[in-house]
Amino acid sequence: MINKLTIIGLGLMGGSLAQALKQQQAVGEVWATGRRSASLEKGQALGVIDHWTLDLAEAVKGADMVLVATPTLVAEQVLSDLAPLLEPQMVVTDVASVKGNIRDAAERVFGEVPANIVLGHPIAGSEQSGVEAAKVDLFRDHRVILTPLPSTSEAALNKVRAMWETAGAEVVAMSVEHHDVVLAATSHLPHVLAYTLVDALAANGDAAEIFRFAAGGFRDFTRIASSDPKMWHDIALANRDAILQGIDDFTAHLAGVRAAIADGDSEAITTVFTRAKAARDQHFLGQYRPANRNDKS
Ligand SMILES: NC(=O)C1=CN([C@@H]2O[C@H](COP(=O)(O)OP(=O)(O)OC[C@H]3O[C@@H](n4cnc5c(N)ncnc54)[C@H](O)[C@@H]3O)[C@@H](O)[C@H]2O)C=CC1
Ligand SMILES: O=C(O)C(=O)Cc1ccc(O)cc1
């Protein structure tokens, strides 16, 4: 049971968690704070939160759980704003899509990351944002990755784990480094590709004509290009090295496919397409689960 949950940055993530915890009667009161009153007022009107204030100190006073749910680069700043406000009972966690930059920011602020700060990332969401897009079951049957550090207390880790399990998620733990490499490949690179594909097509010729004749595949492939550009700007910079590696590996692979098409090399084209179909079908159609499979979306 959480007595007072404070959400810093009330949007899709924070709002959905608040709704899930309230539905399970697993939280006493939910407070939120942020830069502007509009989303906070909306959250209160929707019944997602009980109280709000623009004053960070008032918002977190007496809280036993603080959720940092701002865009990724803002979360770095929020951790340092929180430093003088930490109380012994308080557990602080976050939902940012990249973990290394926040861990590094916390080390700069605190020296060693305090035992009661548990970094985390729900692998669930959508291209929508804002508290009005919050969904009570957003995390149900999805994974949440926690990236505990040697300094993290077992009690704080268990409290964050229990919170996400109450929201219906399956919690897995991994290192910060592994998280950032895996998510660069499975989430960050696909978003970069979707944004770039749509931008390239829209810039090149008659965009309206292209979108008018787009089939379902184009819609499926590019849905995530409707995601919040500010959020993805932050992710691109926060996980720069792993994303650059992903772009380079992908570019080399694409060059191989380009060459096969240019050469009319049926065997090479068929090999790549067949291998990709088998890999995707095996994973998503559940025909087999690799022993080390440890992420799902
Ligand atoms: N949207 C998604 O599908 C997922 C998002 N995430 C991560 O969760 C975090 C939040 O994402 P969403 O809830 O989707 O975003 P959102 O845009 O719905 O909510 C973010 C909230 O933070 C507030 N905010 C912005 N700057 C602030 C500041 N300086 N101080 C206080 N509040 C501030 C915004 O006003 C907004 O209310 C991001 O770090 C994102 O990378 C993680 C998993 C999935
Ligand atoms: O919209 C989608 O399909 C997503 O991929 C949502 C998402 C966005 C950011 C994350 O860090 C995790 C999940």
TrEMBL record:
The keyword ATP-binding does not apply. Its EC number is 1.3.1.12. Keywords: Amino-acid biosynthesis, Aromatic amino acid biosynthesis, NAD, Oxidoreductase, Tyrosine biosynthesis. Residues 3-291 form the Prephenate/arogenate dehydrogenase domain. It catalyses: prephenate + NAD(+) = 3-(4-hydroxyphenyl)pyruvate + CO2 + NADH. GO terms for biological process: tyrosine biosynthetic process. It is an enzyme of class 1 (oxidoreductase). One of its GO terms (molecular function) is prephenate dehydrogenase (NAD+) activity. InterPro entries: 6-PGluconate_DH-like_C_sf, NAD(P)-bd_dom_sf, PDH_C, PDH_N, Preph/Arog_dehydrog, Prephen_DH. It comes from the Bacteria. Belongs to the prephenate/arogenate dehydrogenase family. This is prephenate dehydrogenase. It comes from Spongiibacter nanhainus.
